Amino acid sequence: MTQRASRPAPQRIRAEEAAAMLGVSRRGVHALAARGDLPGAAKIGAIWTFDPQRLKRYKASLARLAEKLEEIDEFSSAPTGRVYVAGYDHYVKIGFSAASRGARILSLQTSAPKEIKVYKYLPGDIALERALHRKFARYRLKGEWFRNTGRLNEWIGAGCPLPLTEHSAKP
User: Fold this and answer.
1) Beta-bridge partners for 94
2) Residue 169 pLDDT exceeds 70
3) What is the DSSP letter of 49?
4) DSSP code of 161?
């Protein structure tokens, strides 16, 4: 009778370690695993465990993809979408969309309690959206939603002129 050499069981790690490895939250790891997006994930009872070698390969593949996307972005000089300024009552959303004008507003409308009015579409990119968020930060309510008052209200009333001048950009 020959004895077969037994291989040690592969090391498994828990969600906290996987989260640290990937740079996301534990909840994020759980959500990705539940969707089937993390290779080497296994749930035993209520506990997720992960194969660290497969996670390392997955993370490396994401890094390669990110590098390729950055290269593509370097060659793209045209705006890839538009910044929209829309809202209702005293609420304004400043966001970016690469989708068609109507598609983004329709998706916003489904979660808004009142009809969304589009104040302006601006040719631009995420950098412009972020610049507007910084300029009107004092009016921010949450995320991309702002209180329509003060200089923000004046800017919208003037037709959302660009470039932002010192006068129109002051909060």
Assistant:
1) 85
2) no
3) E
4) -
Backbone angles phi, psi at 24, to 5 degrees: -130, 175
Radius of gyration of the chain (CA): 24
Alpha-carbon distances, residue 127 vs 62, 80, 140, 150 (angstroms): 23, 11, 17, 23
**Identity of the residue numbered 28:** G
d(CA 42, CA 48): 6
**What backbone phi and psi angles, to 5 degrees, belong to 19?**
-60, -45
Report pTM. Answer: 0.51
What is the residue-wise DSSP string for 19-34?
Answer: HHHHTS-HHHHHHHHH
The 10s digit of each residue's pLDDT in 77-135 is: 545 789 999 999 999 999 998 877 677 777 787 777 888 899 999 988 889 999 999 99
Q: How far apart are CA 8 and CA 57, in angstroms?
A: 21
